[in-house]
Structures are given as C-alpha cells and as structure tokens.
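Sample 1 of the test manifest.
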Amino acid sequence: MAERCAVIGVGQTHHKAKREDVSIAGLVREAALRALDDAELTFADIDAVVIGKAPDMFEGNMMPELYLAPALGAVGKPMIRVHTAGSVGGSTSIVAAHLIASGIHKRVLTVAYEKQSDSDAMWALSVPQPFAAPLLAGAGGYFAPHIRAYMRRSGAPDHIGCMVAVKDRQNAMRNPYAHLHLPDIDMKTVQESVMLWDPLHYLEACPSSDGAAAMVLAAEDSLSGRYPPAWVHGMAMRSEPTMFAGRDQVNPRAGRDCSADVYVQAGITDPRAQIDVAEIYVPFSWYEPMWLENLGFCALGDGWKLTEAGATAFDGDIPWNTSGGVLSSNPIGASGMLRFLEVAMQVRGQAGEHQIDGARIALGQAYGGGSQFFSMWVVGSEKP
Amino acid sequence: MTAATADERGPVTTLATPIALDFDFTPGVAQSRFLRGLEQGKFMGQRCSVCGKVYVPSRGTCPTDGVPTTEDVELSNSGTVTTFCVVNVPFAGQSIEIPYIAAQVLLDGANLSFMGLIQELPATEVRMGLRVEAVWVPEDELAPSLASVRYFRPNGEPDADYETYKEYL
Amino acid sequence: MADSEVLHAAHHIEYPYSRSLGPVLSAFMTGLRDGRLLGVTASGGRIVCPPSEYDPDTGDDVGELVEVGPGGVVESWAWVSTPLRKHPLDRPFAWALIRLDGADTALLHAVDAGSPGAVATGDRVVPRFRPAGERVGSLADIEAFVPEGGAV
Amino acid sequence: MSAARAVRPVSVASFAQAQNVRRDDQRNEVEGLLPVIAEAFGAIGITKDDVDFICSGSTDYLVGGPFSFVMALDAVGVWPPRSESHVEMDGAWALYEAWVLLQEGKVDAALVYSFGRSSLGDLNEILTLQLDPYTMAPLWPDIVSLNALQARALIDAGKATEADFAAVASRSRRDALANPKAQVAGDIPVETLLEDEYVVAPLRRHALPPITDGAAAIVLAAGDKATRWSERPAWITGFDHRIETHALGARDLTASPSTAKAGEVAGVAAGPVDLAEIHAPFAHQELIVREALGLDGTVTVNPSGGALAANPIMSAGLIRIGEAASRIAAGQADRAVAHATSGPCLQQNLVCVLEGA
C-alpha cells in the first residue's frame, strides 16, 4: 500500500533573463535553501535528492547531478537525474514523490533548474544535425501551426490568445519571483507587438529565463515546516510517440489520459467544479484554451469561451496561472516544477498576493516536447 | 564576500568556456533510404506491416506499433497543406528571407506530414487544404538532403476537403 | 541495404559558453588573474581549494576566503606521454592532484615535469603563472605547475 | 532506509542486450534498440501491452544532439499513451526508478532500456563535460587520466600493483570467451598484458575499457507476473545507490564509501554471495568496489567479462544487473550482487542484490 506524501517546503529563485550574480550551483542552492528553510530543515535531514533539467547542452555540463551533488547536500545519499523534455520539472517532482509513496524515504529534496544564459536557448534547442531538414520555423513555428489548427476546429476568435497573454502578465505583477513584470500590459500592447509566427505575437510567447525551483517532500510521519502540508492526491505521467499517423497535437490523447488518471486518484469527477486553482504549462498563449479542453474543464471546442468569459482570470471561478505562469517565467527545466510548486503554495496558503482565498484542491500540469510528454499532480490541503 | 583586486578591469565575474565537439553522424538505415530517394528526386517512405500506415521519412520503426518498417513505398510528388504558419522572426540557422510560409505538407499516399516551404503564392493566400507539388533543385544539384526540394508550390488542383486531412493537423 | 548506402557525415557542435561565477568563484578567478591562489574556509575550519560556495561534503555554506600556496604537494599523478588536442600542454606532462600549502583538499592541474622520472607522489611543486598581461581569470592562467627548485 | 523496510518482491523477468561492437555504423539508436526490446519481450512471450511503466536511460552528449531519448521511444511503440519516464543516467538508475514504482504495489510490470553509441564522438572529450564546469572541465582533463590518478593512489597506498590490474583484465577477457555478446575476449596471461604500452601511466592498454556501441533492455515483474513469466525468478531483495562529492581532491580515491553504503543498505552481507557483476570500466576500479562490498575470494566476479569486455556507456551498468539475473534464472547462482557506477572515478554507485527462489 502506498504511503501518503506531502509537500512541506517550497523555494524558487528570482527568475531573470540572465542571473549573472550566481554560478549554476549558486542558482540551485538559492531555491533549495529556501525550500529547506520553508520546511524548517537542513540538508542533514534529507534522505535523497532528485534533480531535473532539460538538455545538458544548455549549460554544456553533462549529467550535472555529478557536479551538483555536494552543492545540494547529496553526498552519501541517493541522487537521481530526470530528463523528460519540457515536462521534466513535473516528472522530477513525481519521481521524488514516489520515493516517499513507496515507503523508501521519509524526506526527499527535489530541484529543477535551467541556466540558459550560459549559452543560448535557441542554439541549444536547434543544434542542426547532418541530413536534417533545413530549419524552417524555430521553436514557435513548431507550435503555431497547431494553434492555427485549434482556431480552425473551435472557431475561436483571434483575440483569445492576446487575452491570455495579458491575464498571465497581470498575474505576474502579484508574484515577486516572476521574470516578466510588465505593469502597462494591455490588449493593445500585445496585439501591436511583432507578429513572430503568425498567428502568434511576440507578447504571446514565453521568455527565456534563468531560474530554479525546489521542494521538500515528506512522509506522513515526518512533517515539519512553516505552513501546513500540501498533500499529494494524485500524480501521473503519460507519453505518446512524437510523430505518428493521425496524431492529434491540438488535443493529445496522452494529456487526456494523464488527467483522467490523476482525477481518478484524486476523486475528481468535475474538474471545473472541484479544482479551486490550477497552474498549467502555457508557453504560448493559445495553449490555455487548448489545455482547458484537453484537461476536461469544458467540452471540446469551448475552451476559448471560458478564457473569453474570464473564468480563468484571477477573480474567475477557475483561476489559471495566478503566478503568471510560463508566459511570465520560463527557466525550461524548472518551469514544470514551478507549476507543481505553485499549486502546493496555493493549498498551503502561502502564495501571498497571488493566493486564491480558500484554495483546497489544485492541479499542476507540465508538458514537453511536441506535446507528447505530460506530467500532472493534484494536491490538497486535506489528507487524501 | 568581495573579490578585492587592484586590477583596473575590476573583479572577474564570468568565465568563458568554449566547447567544441566532433561526431560521426549516421541517420541510420531507414532514413538513409529516404535521403537516397531525395538524391534521385523522389520521396521514399515505408509502410508498417501491422497498421498499414505509410511514414515518410521513416525512421525504421512504426512509432505506434514498435515494429520495424520494411516495405518501401514511393510517394507522389503532390500533397496537401494541412496547416501552416507565417514566419516573421529571424533565428539562428535560418536561410530564407522573411516573411515566408512554413507548412505541414501531407504527400498523397503518406500518413504523416512534414514541414515544407511554400512559394510562388503570396503569403496571404496560403491556406489549409491547398494542393501543392514539390519543386526540386536541378538534377545535377540533387543531394541526399531535404534541401533537394527547393519548395512546394500550388499544383493547380482545387483545395482538398477538410475531412480528407483533418486527422493530419 | 549495402553498407555504402547508409549515409555518414561529420557533425561539429560548438558554443562559446560564458559562465557567471557567483561570489566565491569570482574571488578565486580574480585571484588567479592577480597571480594568487585562494581557498575557502569550510566546515570544521577545513580549507578547500579550489574553493566552492559550499562545503564539498556537507553542502553547508562556507566562510572566509584565505590565500593558499603558491607551492604544494603532489598527492597523486598520472603521466600523459601523448597529450590530447585539448590538453593544456602539447608536450608530455603529468596530471596531478596538488594540495597547496595551507589547504586541506587538492587541486587538479598539469605538472610540466619533463619526464615521468621527475615527478612523484609527495613531491613539491609550484605554479608557473602566465605573464600578468595574458591572464584572464581562469585556471589556465597557471600554465602548469613545475617541480619546486627543479629546472624544466 | 531500504534495509529496514519490507521490500516488495520484484523480479528481473527478462534481459536482452545488443551485440556489443566497436562501431555500429549502420543503424541509428531506434534501429539498434528495436531488436533488443523485441528480444526482451519475446523471451517471456509478452508484448508492450503487458508492461505498465517504461523507463529509459541515455545521454544526449554521446550523439551530440539534444533530446536523443525522445525518438528512441519509437522503438517501443507507446500507443495508446503510456506511463513513461527517462533518466539522463545509466539504465541501472532507470531500473531503480521503475523498481521504486513497483514497490507501491499499484503496477506489476515495467520495461527498462538504455542505449548509446560511444563510437560517434571522442569520449575523452565528451566525458570531460561531466566535470565541474569552472575548476575542472576548462583544463580538459580526460577520463583515462583521472582514472590513472586513482590507480596511482591505489599503488601509492600499497593496496594494489600494476600486476593486480593486469590480473583483473586477464581474467575478464578469459571469462568473456564464454560471452557471445562480448566485444573483447581472449586468453592472455598477466605477464603478456604487462608488456602493453602505457596509455596514461600507470594505466596500460588492458586496464582500459573498449569503446562500445550497445543497448540493453530488462523487464521487471512483480506479483503473479513474476512467477508466470519466469520458471526461476531472479528476485531483487535489496537495492540502493549513493553519490560522493564531486571534488576529486576532497575524496579518498582508494576507497568507495558510496558503494559500501549502498551495499550496506541493499543488504549484501545478509547472506553468502555466489557471484558479483561489477561495473568497473577501468581494471583498478574492480578492486576498490570488491573491497567496498566486502567480497572475498570465494565470490565469482564478472563471469560475463564485465565492462572490460564491453562498455556500452549508459547501458553497461544495466547489463551488470541483467547478467547477474540471468545466472540466477539459469540456476548457476542463488545469490548475486550487481553494481553500476557513474561519474569520474566511481563518484556514484548503485548496488542491487538478487536472489533465486
């Protein structure tokens, strides 16, 4: 029988385009030490460390868990390095949670990071291999056609994406750790920003950030911390092939199956009614309405209507990304963990200005690659 | 902690660590077959013996069945634009003048689209369902590379019905 | 498919990574540019060189930076008779773990000893810094260590 | 801690590995993996639909491109979508992740695989990128030199001689004669090996691993599946891994406290050990690991020939577990220890104890 698992400490860095004041170790320690402090613990109290990040080529440091082991107090302990593309921050949290749920460890530190400014994200993501197709579109160009396909299928009007871009940046003003703080953002600013990959404007895309996130997870008999625990009610990962005949990249089955799995574990039958707040991986604005449908918050084709009606706004009935989300901070390897961490903060009541009052059940989601890797968890303020 | 120094350049705050590595790359058996086809001015795909789907390029396996693909299939020079985007942003490695259209092209007879450049049509007139054909480089410039396909252009046929390609978006 | 039909090509990847250092490594690299070697005070008063922002065993925060060396003792060594293209020297040399005077841990660097007979565990070595104007703030500011008092 | 808790019995139900070769210049990663996974499933008559979880181990830097694990998934066929994960580590750690999940009792079977072609680039340069990017990697020390420093430390400490290294290599190559998947095998006496040139003194050619392209797959099973899929299941009765500091100059290179700790938690000493598969790419490392695990002269070490006979990076650790399990399944051993390592000079170590019925 699986043991209960709870988040008892969270920490994150101030995310920026370039964190020129720290080394890689300094960056991950900033998040890890904050998480330990929040849990009122030290490295000596930790049984194991699970670290995640996206490609090693971002920093030119192969299998960085080796170099980072002492920086994270892992010497003499088990240490695991997870890499599942953009979903990695979520997957890392889940691998760490299984170390508790399996009864193997009592307290696990999990960390995810990216220090993209050591190189250049666009370079690292597009190292051309021989014989590969000529580069036609860049990162957003991979997603823009799927956004167009979503608009065609759902009949969504053009302005929905811009609404998400404005909402998430306004939310970021409530989050002191967010990379982008754009106090004057409005629909006009977004619509007048450069059209990068039609239909995507510049301000509808995520930034490139340096940053780290960390959590301390604990078993039921090993709780501590400055805030009440966030209990893990359900967690799941799903993958599907990157390219195959008939693949639906607008509404991927891996995402639907993954959410169905966590909802069963968490006893959720009506996500919109039962989930108080959600942090969802939205690196390009239009992924909010797409994921609203994929995650079952509404019927197929209705996602944009929820966004348009303000349902996902800070004061809506299902606030999404009150932290500002990936659109406001994107340290790639950590972005997924930030989603998982932010929902833990919500049910612990420690989210400060972006706290949703009375949040009791929250969903964190991360996805990666070409929407083929998904990880999700549901956390709650009460014991499952 | 401060890095006290008398040096007029001030403290050292960054370390330059250039990294250069060399590899011998091979795309493998199946993709070599596809690339050798391009060298001859044709699109070569492979069919899965379990589900019957045709992959181009094939990586030697059916991604959903996990079995080797062994039957070679030569595909048409024409296809359908399933979806597309207008590229307005310069980025590293780009070789075409912006703005331009990058489209997902589903070749007739294939079950997987791939990204291609659309030319000979104003960007504003490119649409989902547009029927296109491949324009190849001159014969003496053909190489085992997708660069052998200069671009796709309208082939004059009426647009494909959405129902025929909606599974390939 | 015949062997010759499977394609091959040279694949070269290159990037000029630029790493921000943070306070401890910044001080260490600045010291190297100034021709000095620094260690850091870690748990139990142990002096760690090369320094890190954390104790290499416990992960605890570290204390003050202190000057160490410049000479030290070879703790282990390995003789490279055919240097690789990226090695710091293009003639035969030894890699060595060198515990600098005043430090409790060892630094990895090259020892330009001339021949394998001229280096041994326990030998004393000193750094041969590059000229001040060529130093940039990196371990490569030390061209190599050399046997103390020995002419190479 | 694992040793103190009841471990859910999980068996290594099936194991397959590619023919270990110096260079597979025909197939890409997916093409190399396909037959290995098919063999692992086929040997016990199952398909991909019989496993509940998939976990793999690999590294981008062997092929020189990001996300190399992504396309490898096409060798499995993850449709309908599957619960799946990846570690940028040797497959032995992927196996650990899968074993952890099976401990919860919700799922009963997992596929674990790993792959890597070491022949594509220059390992002496690639593995340097594992080192501290500020105070080590910029000088480009190579993996052979770092291991030569460790070997020298052993000699200086009076714990071993160059002849001891040669004896490990001689025995490994002789045992590899019986391993059809081995890359390097031969009956060469110690005296002959000691005539080899130094690559980096004190390491001679024979003390180094070959460069190997390879892949491996293991099916883990619990509950009914374990007993249904194997006549004589190789049960994992203890499993742990530990890491040491990265600072080489702050370590005692002649010992492996992380191996000792992992061995203690995994319960190596709780019973007699018939055989050990030790992941020691460099001959001297075997001596250090044996000591850390407390293995005496009665233990058969590396009957497969070990990593000195074939060293497919990212798979060589997983293969040790597969080799040990195969011998238990075949009734050649009742209790075995498998070991995997990662990082410079045995920085990180994993120990898996396997037992027959």
